[in-house]
């Protein structure tokens, strides 16, 4: 099929490349000229495993092109809206300016029978509003909402082999068009839920709210574990064996961040309040508070580990991205901890395999070091806050010789306390004795 993807960020660039990989003819559109230039040259403007390969093969095949001109979307039968919906400054609500601008910009270019497919995460009610607008100004086109559940770091796989497809549609024709696009996944047995607009929009925010709640639940248990001498990692293993609970997303630590979970739970609360149902998701405020407290907990542990003050002490911060296998530092707990320690006077040296460029743009006041060895050299304290495999695999005996004081705070509970202690380290985990 002929497809356009409006918005070429983490979501759109992967979606456009994956659709071309599946054999569709795709044009990716974005207002950011630099981003479009990079993508057209086959270079992803962000780190995502597997993306360079499909981007290069799709651009070389001629099935994938990029443009900054919305008019180039004109020939497509299906237009995916994949622009961002960040948190509004000074409020918890989602900022829909990019969605509205992309939608309005697209309207003059919609061919007869074209289908506009929303992928962006939006407050429930948005699709109905856009469908009404379409009925007024472009009745020859229609709208579907098809939320995306990809995880950064696994985005290509999640797009090509999703664990479910959700279509919010107003008629069977839209569902049939989406079936044609996702034929390969459907043939492989991917479950598909065909529903209305509000359900499709809510599925997305409910899924992220549930995941955030699961993480904050285990982090709340970590707080209790800290007060009682229990070990939250063993607790998670034990409750995780109950198939109704499950072990995934029960890793206690410095908490969740990124461009999705934090802003999505806040936007959900804001929307629920607008609907007069704020009480129904009041617990999400608690989920957010528990999450933010974990960052403070790591900072407090650092102060405690250095005898009451981090001032002028050298702290090696391992990781700046919000999770491994990503260069994304949006709302990153790791970067937040580094910034807070710096604010307390510490000589912070932050390192990360992929995130340093983005971190430097946001927080030029921090010292960054690409080499893990150099970041660790002469450190008075080591704080692991993003569980890159390189850090998980550090040899405690080797690292012991680099630092000036062998104390480590394992903000992701991924190091083995026994072997680190045996190598002479003072080890502190989160929610572990
Ligand atoms: C999340 C969802 O997992 C995706 O399904 C969704 O499509 C996406 O948001 C989105 O809305 O676009 P992502 O932001 O890539 O994906 O990251 P996750 O893998 O969900 O991790 C989020 C945060 O939770 C990370 O900071 C991670 O370190 C943290 N986390 C995760 C924990 O602290 N503990 C865990 O057990 C799991």
Features:
globular; Rossmann fold; 433 residues; 2 domains; 6-stranded parallel beta sheet; oxidoreductase; 8-stranded mixed beta sheet
List the helices and strands and how they pair.
Blueprint: E1 2-6, H1 10-21, E2 25-29, H2 33-40, H3 51-61, E3 64-67, E4 78-81, H4 97-106, E5 115-118, H5 126-137, E6 142-145, H6 155-160, E7 165-169, H7 172-181, H8 183-187, E8 192-195, H9 197-228, H10 232-240, H11 261-274, H12 283-305, E9 314-318, H13 333-343, E10 347-351, H14 356-362, E11 367-368, H15 372-376, E12 381-384, H16 389-392, H17 396-400, E13 407-410, H18 417-422, E14 426-429
Parallel strand pairs: 1-2, 1-4, 2-3, 4-5, 5-6, 7-8, 9-10, 9-12, 10-11, 12-13, 13-14
Antiparallel strand pairs: 6-7
Helix pairs in contact: 1-3, 9-11, 9-12, 12-13
The chain binds uridine-5'-diphosphate-glucuronic acid (UGA).
Question: How would you characterize this protein structure?
Answer:
The protein is α/β, with parallel strands linked by helices. 44% of the residues lie in helices and 14% in strands. The chain has 18 helices and 14 strands. It has helices at 10-21, 33-40, 51-61, 97-106, 126-137, 155-160, 172-181, 183-187, 197-228, 232-240, 261-274, 283-305, 333-343, 356-362, 372-376, 389-392, 396-400, 417-422, and strands spanning 2-6, 25-29, 64-67, 78-81, 115-118, 142-145, 165-169, 192-195, 314-318, 347-351, 367-368, 381-384, 407-410, 426-429. An eight-stranded mixed sheet has the order 3-2-1-4-5-6-7-8, sandwiched between helices. The mean pLDDT is 97. Bound molecules: uridine-5'-diphosphate-glucuronic acid.
